[in-house]
């Protein structure tokens, strides 16, 4: 009954939405996992939020349709010989949606704002390569001491702490996008509301109806507006992946950024090439509360990890669309070699179970005193089925499991705000192709993403040394040592390497499968 009601309501909603625009306009109906917690790009942290932010704002550089770095607001840039200074020249045609010119000061304001401790940006540390940024974020220095300078209105200079080979790619991230200072200061936290938001991307925010849709419309002041073919994009929260498939089949969605694993065979047969599976730079994992008894015992975390049959998860739960993960850094990442795989990677599953039972016994658990675990996961049949399979694995070694499910917004807010849990489902998609972007997550001072509350001074020291190392080979070795330590301590249990699962209509043109799974609406069109 619930699905039927959705199917009846949804076309009515679309009819009302489309009736407000000209029939000549091109409208893109886009499924997008969940509602964003916020559209303040300094406070966002999830992939589904970035999809919207990337349509609304443009940084110094952007990804093209194939996820290659290309000029954005900056039409060109120069890098100093020592690799520590980047000078960006802005295009004259870069404007805000209200017609104001985009200037270097808009970026200076944004970079300083995200680093201010009072902003509370969970993702601020992604910009720590900028000279002085970390000191500002920790309250040890004033924002104007950062290495970000407006040379003139159309020239921005950024100085780095050390050579950062991935810096340009890092700037494609939402944390590197500008802000319109006057509107932020006028409206405060309400600058993200329709009618208040001033953006500089291909689209402007028109509507945000929670649990229904977000509507963005083409920005006529965007510097490349003449090549933007889609006039209006509706983003719909599609936590129910099964319902999203039904909507897609009914023609109510042109795309959806995920798909239900229990329907993979059906989608392959019924949707053909409209069901896309592509390599993706990410790891699906479980965070373990490493500072909470009994999970603070590394033997317990290792036993939990060893008992999990990742091959079964990849093949039977995820339909062969995900690969077993025995490292946190996915293979094939840039500036690295082979990741630091777990030493039990090639063990037979039954031998792993015996070893897990022995470790639990050492830690004081047996059939008379079983380890009890609650798995917290966000709404999705995929995540539910994964949790049930892992509970079955754990039952085989004497672990008793219960479940707690919440919607995606609540789930991630709970993790970021240091809420209590035993084990929590999470996933990480690389913002740039470098191992640092995975390993930085469990640095002790990473309040935003160190869900495990892992605190290992030796690990922090390796990551700090890698950040200062200018020799790329020496840097790789330091990061490998850090990942080896990670895989011994297991604050996160790597489960699977991601593939992106997408539904893409034959009518949607310009969608290019890519490793980052980024798909800006400005590059696409609808063919009716």
Give an overview of the whole structure.
With 528 residues, this protein is an alpha+beta fold. The protein has two domains: 2-239 and 505-526, 3-Layer(aba) Sandwich (D-Maltodextrin-Binding Protein, domain 2); 278-500, Dipeptide-binding Protein, domain 3 (Roll). It contains 16 helices and 19 strands. Strands 1, 8, 9, 10, 11, 12, 13, 14, 15, 16 and 17 form an eleven-stranded mixed β-sheet that branches. It has a four-stranded antiparallel β-sheet with strand order 4-5-7-6, covered by helices on one side. Residues 1-22 have low confidence and may be disordered.
Name of the CATH class of the largest domain: Alpha Beta
Number of domains: 2
Q: How large is the radius of gyration?
A: 23 Å
The amount of beta strand, in percent, is 15-25%
> Residue-averaged pLDDT, rounded?
93
What is the CATH homology-level superfamily of the largest domain? Answer: Periplasmic binding protein-like II
Alpha carbon gap, first and last residue: 31 Å
Total number of helices: 16
Q: What does the main sheet amount to?
A: 11 strands, mixed
Count all strands and give the number: 19
Q: Just name the CATH architecture of the largest domain.
A: 3-Layer(aba) Sandwich
Overall geometry comes to: globular
Helix content: 25-40%
CATH topology heading of the largest domain: D-Maltodextrin-Binding Protein, domain 2
**Which ranges are low-confidence, i.e. pLDDT below 50, for 5 or more consecutive residues?**
1-22
SS content category: alpha+beta
């Amino acid at each position: 009954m619930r699905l039927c009601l959705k199917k009846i309501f949804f076309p009515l909603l679309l009819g009302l939405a489309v009736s407000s625009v000209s029939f000549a306009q091109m409208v893109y109906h886009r499924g997008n996992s969940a509602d964003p917690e916020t559209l303040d790009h300094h406070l966002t942290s999830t992939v589904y939020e970035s999809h919207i932010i990337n349509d609304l704002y443009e940084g110094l550089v952007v990804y093209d349709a194939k996820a290659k770095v290309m000029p954005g607001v900056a039409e060109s840039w120069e890098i100093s010989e020592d690799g520590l200074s980047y000078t960006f020249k802005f295009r004259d045609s870069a404007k805000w949606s209200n017609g104001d010119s985009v200037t270097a000061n808009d970026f200076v304001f944004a970079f300083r704002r995200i680093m201010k401790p009072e902003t509370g940006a969970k993702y601020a540390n992604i910009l720590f390569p900028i000279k002085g940024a970390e000191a500002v974020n920790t309250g040890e220095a004033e924002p104007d001491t950062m290495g970000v300078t407006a040379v003139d209105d159309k020239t921005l200079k950024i100085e780095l702490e050390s050579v950062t080979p991935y810096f340009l790619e890092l700037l494609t991230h939402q944390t590197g996008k500008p802000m319109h200072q006057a509107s932020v200061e006028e409206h405060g936290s309400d600058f993200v509301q329709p009618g208040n938001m001033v953006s500089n991307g291909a689209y402007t925010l028109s509507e945000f109806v929670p649990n229904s849709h977000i509507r963005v419309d083409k920005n006529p002041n965007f510097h490349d507006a003449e090549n933007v073919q889609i006039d209006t994009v509706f983003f719909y929260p599609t936590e129910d992946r099964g319902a999203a498939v039904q909507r897609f089949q009914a023609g109510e969605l042109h795309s959806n950024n995920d798909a239900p694993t229990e329907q993979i065979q059906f989608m392959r047969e019924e949707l053909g090439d409209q069901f896309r599976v592509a390599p993706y730079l990410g790891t699906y994992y479980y965070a373990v509360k490493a500072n909470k008894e009994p999970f603070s015992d590394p033997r317990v975390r290792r036993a939990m990890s060893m008992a999990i049959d990742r091959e079964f998860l990849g093949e039977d739960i995820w339909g062969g669309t995900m690969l077993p993960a025995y490292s946190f850094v996915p293979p094939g990442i840039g500036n690295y070699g082979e990741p630091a795989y777990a030493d039990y990677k090639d063990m037979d599953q039954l031998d792993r179970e015996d070893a897990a039972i022995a470790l639990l016994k050492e830690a004081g658990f047996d059939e008379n005193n079983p380890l009890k675990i609650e798995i917290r996961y966000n709404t999705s049949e995929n995540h539910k089925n994964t949790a049930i399979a892992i509970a079955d694995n754990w039952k085989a070694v004497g672990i008793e499991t219960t479940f707690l499910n919440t919607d995606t917004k609540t789930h991630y807010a709970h993790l970021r705000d240091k809420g209590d849990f035993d084990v929590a489902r999470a996933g990480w998609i690389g913002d740039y192709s470098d191992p640092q972007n995975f390993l930085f997550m469990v640095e002790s001072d990473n309040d935003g993403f160190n869900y495990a509350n892992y605190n290992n001074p030796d690990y922090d020291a390796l990551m700090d040394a890698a950040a200062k190392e200018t020799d790329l080979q020496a840097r790789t070795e330091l990061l490998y040592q850090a990942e080896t330590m990670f895989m011994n301590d297991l604050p996160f249990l790597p489960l699977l390497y991601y593939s992106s699962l997408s539904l893409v209509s034959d009518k949607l043109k310009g969608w290019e499968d890519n490793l980052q799974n980024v798909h800006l609406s400005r590059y696409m069109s609808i063919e009716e």
